[in-house]
Amino acid sequence: MRFRTLKGLAELCAAEGASIADIMLADQSKESGKPPEYVMDKMRAYYRIMKEAVQKGLTEDTTSRSGLTGKDAQRVMTYLSSDVPSLGDEACKAMAYALAVSEVNASMGRIIATPTAGSCGIIPGVFFASQERFGWDDDHLVRGLLTAGAIGYVIANNSFVSGAEGGCQAEVGSAIGMAAGALVELRGGTPEQAMHAVGLALKNTLGLICDPVGGLVEIPCIVRNGFGAVNAMAAADMALAGVRSVIPSDEVVQVMYEVGTAMPEKHRETAKGGLAQTPTGRQIMKELNLARKKQS
Fold first, then answer.
1. Is 1 within the bounds of a domain?
2. How do residues 66-119 score in pLDDT, each as one tens digit?
3. Structural domain includes residue 99
4. Residue 32's CB: how many other CB atoms inside 10 A?
5. Rounded CA gap, 218 and 179, in Å?
6. pLDDT tens for each residue of 148-199
7. pTM (2 decimals)?
8. Rounded CA separation 183/177 (Å)
9. Domain with 163 in it: what CATH number?
10. What does the angle CA 81 – CA 176 – CA 261 come to, to the nearest 5 degrees?
11. How confident is residue 292, by pLDDT bands cut at 50, 70 and 90?
12. Rounded Cα–Cα distance for residues 231 and 126 (Å)
């Protein structure tokens, strides 16, 4: 790739008069040795899987094997159809769609890790809800995936996207930043505005621990995907309105690395701290272990 930082990516866009998606498509094509249309076809396939996961999560039984989670996306959609949500219809739909994909993941369905399975609902939730609202065709959202991928590439190479390495700030936080920056470009914002959206989004999740109850990617992971979709939309709106990340986005990424490195092991996907070690969390772990022993 010709860029290693978010600032470098924005500068490359300015120098070439190109969008982030344009830069990512050209670089990905060159790196893979495949023509741009091949790369687009791969991304189209990924987006189809995302949309299928949204629909599955809204229409099928997504009860997880543990029995701990499932059908919350459907509960939110039922609420949306029968009441006036505080968030407004569009943000509430994005939240439901993000929950849907994350529940499909927890119930062993097919998803696209963006950037991880634990944060797989955020980008589809934001993208699909926005597509419905603005009437975009699939190829517009596919270009959005390229934008999100470019942002994720920078974060992954300068910080973390793994909860085991940097806590949930690395998984959900990165996905929120990727979705926020991509949404800015999808809505016609500049690369500079997209970078501000990333910084605004990441600042809001710094220090978020990874504390999966029972060691499963279910509690609190699924609801964090729902909240993450709403946060991404908020960050995009702030950036489009002209709100700037006073701390440059690359510096925010560096802080995420520093915080993740300093984070105790018990708060990095080990289920040894946080919500996993509350009385209820420990009881759930005990019950899961008993169930596993009976199955074996």
1. no
2. 999 999 999 999 999 999 999 999 999 999 999 999 999 999 999 999 999 999
3. yes
4. 11
5. 21
6. 999 999 999 999 999 999 999 999 999 999 999 999 999 999 999 999 999 9
7. 0.97
8. 10
9. 1.10.4100
10. 140
11. confident
12. 10
Q: How many domains does the chain have?
A: 1
Q: Could you give the count of Cα atoms lying within 13 Å of 123 in the half-sphere of its Cβ?
A: 36
Residue 288 DSSP code: H
Q: Letter for the amino acid at 262?
A: A
Question: Tokens 């597509």 identify what position?
Answer: 131
Q: Which two tokens stand for residue 282?
A: 């420990």
Distances (CA, A) of 53 to 87, 92, 261: 23, 17, 33
**Of 138, 104, 133, 142, nearest in space to 121 by CA:** 104
Give dist(CA 27, CA 29) in Å, integer: 5
The boundaries of the domain holding residue 145 are: 6-295
| Residue 23 domain-assigned (yes or no) | yes
pLDDT for res 77: 98
Q: Do the Cβ atoms of 182 and 142 come closer than 8 Å? A: no
Residue 44 lies in a domain: yes
Nearest residue to 10 (alpha-carbon basis) of 145, 123, 147, 143: 147
